[in-house]
Amino acid sequence: xxxxxxxxxxxxxxxxxxxxxxxxxxxxxxxxxxxxxxxxxxxxxxxxxxxxxxxxxxxxxxxxxxxxxxxxxxxxxxxxxxxxxxxxxxxxxxxxxxxxxxxxxxxxxxxxxxxxxxxxxxxxxxxxxxxxxxxxxxxxxxxxxxxxxxxxxxxxxxxxxxxxxxxxxxxxxxxxxxxxxxxxxx
Length: 186
Description:
Number of strands: 7
Radius of gyration: 16 Å
Strand content: 25-35%
Oligomer: single chain
Shape: globular
């Protein structure tokens, strides 16, 4: 596993062997960030990385100039690995939160340009994530929620859905915050 672009390009990550996470493949990351670089200014943005795992997506955003990345994962080993990587890179714009993502979403308030979610593929309740993100007001009006999921899962019926991109067995579904309801005419 390596960082595929930006200032940390080609830096290899060596997470502990005993992890149960499924890191995003380099192929899928390259595809995702190719799409993002042609549609979104990545320099200076705020990113929330849910189910951050090894933190490799967080590092991709930081490598490409994100002003702040908050990574949320409840696994102690992965949390410690992300903290160690931040120290090794002297990366001061990266903050980690060791907490269950659903608990975090119900309590956290903040605004982000991009919210990235990579839940375990077989986790129940994945479909709730867009609604939780939107209800918490975590995205600015031009913000994007990106969900990584297996190809068998169709999220096109969810609020704010825009499109899905496939990279092998991995898919990224993109969501925009639903437009606020307009007030009734008097």
